[in-house]
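Person: I keep going back and forth on a fold encoding question. Show me how you would write down a chain together with its backbone fold. Please set it down just below, with no commentary around it:
Helper:
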Amino acid sequence: MAYEIDKPEEQWRSELTPEEYRVLREAGTERAFTGAYTDTETIGVYNCRACGAELFRSDTKFASHCGWPSFYDPARTDAVELRTDRSLGMVRTEVRCARCGSHLGHVFEGEGYATPTDQRYCINSVSLTLVPDGPGQAGSDQAG
């Protein structure tokens, strides 16, 4: 698939940290409960770390206790791309940034999530940049 932001891998590698590159460009996963946004309650917008596209909003973030930031809906339906992922001997739904194709995480469905969409977008913190709403919000992040 062609993306709006299309860079050679060498350029991505030079623009991202090694961990960002491993997750965003090689579909890696950060360790559970280590990400900066796992427990964050700051109000704002979560953008793609690779290209800056708006992906999720804090009003759809919820405490799933799974070890990664969880959202029940993207900011816009066309903000993310969903793909079948058959790695690790199971079938999952991978979530990618629709603008640059970077790996974000996975989405899981089921009534047990008790969200308006019955979905849990389980997203790597390293794939995101949080832009707090309003003045004075920077630095108030409650990362844990």
